[in-house]
Amino acid sequence: MLLCPENSGPELAKFAFAQVVSPMPQRKGRSGKAAPPKKDKPSRVGIVFLYENRTFVESTLVDQGEACAGFVNHTGGHEVYWERLQSAGEVPEDEPYESVPRGRVVFNQKTREYLLYLDRCIVKRAVIVRAIKAQLGLPAGSRTLILTDTHYRCSKCLDRG
Ligand SMILES: [Zn+2]
Questions:
Q1: Distance 51 CA to ligand 1 centre (A)
Q2: What distance in angstroms lies between residue 153's CA and the mean position of ligand 1's atoms?
Q3: Separation of CA 143 and ligand 1 centre (Å)
Q4: Are 104 and 46 within 8 A, CB to CB?
Q5: Phi, psi of 47 (to 5 degrees)
Q6: Which of 49, 97, 105, 138 is deepest in the core (most CB within 10 A)?
Q7: Ligand 1 centroid to 37 CA: how many Å?
Q8: Confidence of residue 1 (pLDDT cuts 50, 70, 90)
C-alpha cells in the first residue's frame, strides 16, 4: 500500500461528501433470497472512460492502491491515461479527455464500501455500469455505491448545465 503525499488529503476528503445516486440493488437468486456469495475476483480501484460504447479501464488492486485520508485511490490520472490510449491508436488524437464521459472508483477504508463516481452519461446506462463493475471486480450489493460528482462531467453534461 502506498502512502499519499500529505497535501492530497483534502482532495480525497471530498469523496466523503459526494451525492449517492443509488446503492446497487441486491443480487437475488431465483428463490428471491440473496444469491450465495461467489468467490469473486479481487476488487480494484481505478479510472474509466466510455468512448463510443467501449469502456477503457486502468486500475490497481485495492491493496496496492494509495491510502489517503481514509480512502484507497488509484494513483493514475485521466489525462495521462487518455494520452496513452491516443498513442495506442485506441481513441482519436483530436478528442480531448475532458469531453469524454469518465469516472473513478475509490475504496472507503472505514465503511469498506467502493465509491464508483461516474459521469451521468454512464450512470444512465445500466449495462455499461455492470460491465465496469465486472471489470473492476467490485462487489455486488450495497458495498458498491454509484455516485456523481461535478468533477466527472463530459462536454455533453456540461452543456446541459
Ligand atoms: Zn456526460
A1: 11
A2: 5
A3: 24
A4: yes
A5: -125, 150
A6: 105
A7: 33
A8: low
Separation of alpha carbons 32 and 122, rounded Å: 28
Number of domains comprising the chain: 1
Which set of grid coordinates corresponds to residue 20?
A: 449517492
Residue range 35-47: average pLDDT? Answer: 77
State pLDDT tens for residues 104-159: 999 999 999 999 999 999 999 999 999 999 999 999 889 999 999 888 999 999 99
The SS3 assignment for 74 reads coil
Can you give the pTM of this predicted structure? 0.80
Ligand 1 centroid distance, CA of 101 (Å): 5
Least confident of 28-32, 51-55, 137-141: 28-32
44-72: average pLDDT: 96
Phi, psi of 96 (to 5 degrees): -75, 145
Assess if residue 126 is contained within a domain.
yes
Residue 1 Cα, ligand 1 centroid: separation in angstroms? 32
Domain with 75, as residue range(s), is 2-16+41-160
Residue 142 Cα to ligand 1 midpoint, Å, equals 24
What is the whole-number distance in angstroms between the Cα of residue 40 and the centre of ligand 1? 30
Task: Give the type of residue at 63.
Answer: D
Q: What cell numbers appear for 116 in the block?
A: 464508483
Residue 93 is assigned to a structural domain of this protein: yes
